């Protein structure tokens, strides 16, 4: 029983990280109907940035905030420079560009920081542990995730800018008519997604350690989470993230073993796409021919 | 048309003479170029012609390689007999993966195959399969010797050169097969599905059958390439078949040219030799260059090298 509780709690902690990354994917999907394959590598790059800052002697939370800011700008730049030219291109071209971005970020990180594994500090003091069940980092990671979610919800629900972004995603033509700069809203969406990804990266790095390939597995789970919840539903992505995190831990510990964890993500992705492509909370799309 | 046949004959003469002119290591590299060309041809049938994006073709390459290696290592099968078996196994695997994939379009198929590519090394390491797959260690296989008949006849064939010619022969068969398949009814049907699947079905094209068959055939080509690759490298291990192998194939068809048969060869030359050159700069450089080329080709040359060649020859012929 104790093992079970421990696995569930640990699953919630990693699930929160998947939820953040899934949320970043959903944000870009909502705005552009594209799934960003480079999301994981963008987060990885941000995490290296944070590592550099901390290594240079900056206090953790200052580095944390600065990294989020830089990642935000990086996301906007990537949208403006790399993604914008293929906005209306066929899917294959867009996927190719995303994959290109993925390998460029991956190799540049390898080039600058080498492929040796680095450890990444956790900012949460040992006093934050909840009894035997939760390590301080697990408590902290869940807390940070929930904070990010709350902040995003407030932003999209109560600020004019958030409203404009939602409008631009939902109906670009009408938004343009009422004076919203749709192109910039998309860029902002990319910036926000990159910033959320950076938080996810910094939260997962103490668990999986820092190396250029650290996000491949995490990204796969985030895909699974986003699809499970419905790729166009932010709420769904978050719930999906927690569900996938707990499932991953429980199945890994008691059923299929740790060797097949990634295959579980594969089965989940294909299963959701086959049985219920819109996920649990997504909109069902009907296309006219 | 005569010009084309003339060109192909010249190319074959060069291909036949090259291994006697260059070192054994270069011969080995040329063998790999042929192997990659077959794999890219397979991916091009799926992604280029029928428009289904696969980011996980490394998984089928891995399957072909493992089938060949296991048959040689555990069942004592001769190397040449493993190639058709690997092809058949991959056809079945591809067809089966294609059935659910039918319902997935564009981005979603890319997602599902991406997951397949990422998960593949882990599946190969699975402990229950270790008896056959050798786990993390993989399988070491023997390099085949040239047939005694040919060496006795005085032809200077060392194992490297023999393997090259063996691969060349298989590659010729596969290219002929692809050419025959794609120039006629089947090729037109695939392109029609890619361009307008509803219209294609209204014209009587069985979309579901063609799409999953395209998946199967594509996996078969890639599996044959995997088997040949395993024999040439004499070694299979899970971690050499990671997602970056699948991405390498994508780079190959984007650079070589989508929906083009000669494009497979250009792409293969690119993915074999460019990393070798770039490796001298840094371990990470080949991938940075791959990434830049991928994005660059999408922006500037969406038809790839094959498209550029077509354009140049067309321009020369009609001044």
Written overview of the protein:
The complex is a heterodimer of chains A (289) and B (319). Chain A is mainly α and 289 residues long. Chain A has one domain: ABC transporter involved in vitamin B12 uptake, BtuC. In chain A, 74% of the residues lie in helices and 0% in strands. In chain A, helix 1 runs antiparallel to helix 8 and helix 2 packs parallel to helix 4. The longest helix of chain A has 31 residues. The radius of gyration of chain A is 19 Å and the shape is globular. The mean pLDDT of chain A is 87. Chain B has 319 residues and is mostly helical. Chain B has a two-stranded antiparallel ribbon. In chain B, helix 1 runs antiparallel to helix 8. Classes of the chains: A mainly alpha (289), B mainly alpha (319). At the A-B interface, helix 4, helix 9 and helix 11 of A face helix 5, helix 12 and helix 14 of B.
Question: Concise description?
Answer:
The complex is a heterodimer of chains A (289) and B (319). By secondary structure, chain A is an all-alpha fold.
Write the layout of secondary structure elements.
The complex is a heterodimer of chains A (289) and B (319).
Chain A: H1 2-32, H2 39-55, H3 60-83, H4 91-113, H5 136-158, H6 160-170, H7 172-177, H8 182-208, H9 215-229, H10 234-255, H11 261-275
Helix pairs in contact in A: 1-5, 1-8, 1-9, 1-10, 2-3, 2-4, 2-8, 2-9, 3-8, 5-6, 5-8, 6-8, 9-10, 9-11
Chain B: H1 2-21, H2 24-49, H3 57-74, H4 79-101, H5 106-124, H6 130-133, E1 139-140, H7 148-152, H8 159-183, H9 185-195, H10 197-202, H11 207-233, E2 235-236, H12 243-256, H13 261-278, H14 285-300, H15 304-317
Helix pairs in contact in B: 1-8, 2-8, 2-11, 2-12, 2-13, 3-4, 3-5, 3-11, 4-11, 8-11, 9-11, 12-13, 12-14, 12-15, 13-14, 13-15
